[in-house]
Design goal:
The structure is a single chain. This protein is of the alpha+beta class and 195 residues long. The chain has a single domain, classed as 3-Layer(aba) Sandwich (Aminopeptidase). The protein has helices at residues 3-11, 34-45, 53-57, 116-127, 142-146; strands at residues 25-28, 69-72, 78-90, 96-107, 136-139, 157-159, 169-172, 182-187.
Amino acid sequence: MTKRELQIRRTAPIGAPPMDIPTRTLIPLANVEPAMIEQVLDLSFGPDRRSRTAYKIREGTDWLPALSYAALDDEGMLAGTIQAWPVALTDPEGRAHPMIMVGPVAVLPGKQDQGYGRAMMAALSASLDPAAPLPQVLIGDTDYYARFGFTNAHTGGWKCPGPWEPARLMVRTGNPAVLPKEGMLGPWLAGSPSR
C-alpha cells in the first residue's frame, strides 16, 4: 500500500464524519468557571440567547455534569462547551417521558469548523449508558446534527413552549417506538410523573 493510500484511508473513516483534524482536549464542564461558560455562550449565540425556546424547555433544571464538556484549544484556552439537560416530553395523557436535551453546543466564532463541536458531540455520545440510553433531543441545524444520528422524522407532533421551526426539532434514539407521537417538551424536574 502506498503512502497516499494510507493517507486517504486515515482521513476517510467508514461510518463517521471525517476527523482529519488534530485530537481535541476535552475536560468536564464542571471544571470551568461559570462566568467563562457564559462568555462562550454569549459570543456564540448573542446576548439575547436566553429568550430562545430551548431555554424555556429546560427552565429550572441544572445541566448534567456527567454529559457536559468543554473543549480546549492548542494553547489550553476555552474554545467551546456542550451541555446536556434533563427534559421530558409530556404526552396528551399527562405522562412525562424523560429525555436528555443536548445543547447548547457552543464554539467560539474564531474556532468554528475545526472539529471542536464534533469532538464534544462524540464525548457526550460516548458518555451515555448503552444499557439504558434516554432519547436525546435538540433544536438545531438539521444538516449538521443528522451526521450524529438526529432526525426530525419522529417529532412532527411535538410542541415547544415558544416559537420554533419544526424541522429543527430533532431526536436521537435507538428505539423510535418508545417515542410518543404527540406531546409538549419541558423541564424534567424532581417529582415529575413519568411513564
